[in-house]
Amino acid sequence: MDEFKLIERFFRRDSKSCGIVVGIGDDGAVIKTDTNEQTVLVTDTLVAGVHFSERTTPQDLGYKLLAVNLSDLAAMGAKPNWFLLNLVMPELDERWLQGFSTGLFSLAEEYGVELVGGDTSKGPLCVSSTVGGYV
Fold first, then answer.
1. Strand ranges (E), the chain
2. What is the pLDDT of residues 45-66, one digit of tens each?
């Protein structure tokens, strides 16, 4: 089953909110705010051994995680504003986290996006972020 069939079968619901302009179906959503702007949200998950090699440096991984989300946001015509970060790691490794955060924040600073929250857990290496912006 491909991604779109999975979404149709298990996750598509009739929208209950009149503020949803573009909903479930891909990596992004558009939500109308009370102003003349619309909020755009995108999310991506990167799993070790699937989306990146175990040899990928932490700095490159941090950069890539934000870059794939910023690319999705740009494809929707939005200017980025903030992001959420989720980390699943086999163990706490301060050196790894330093490299990861260096790569992540180097791109965040370049695009003026702020980390506003997220989640961490223990398990096989997996990182995800959700980026929000406006059109």
1. 20-22, 28-32, 38-47, 79-89, 114-122, 126-134
2. 999 999 999 899 999 999 999 9
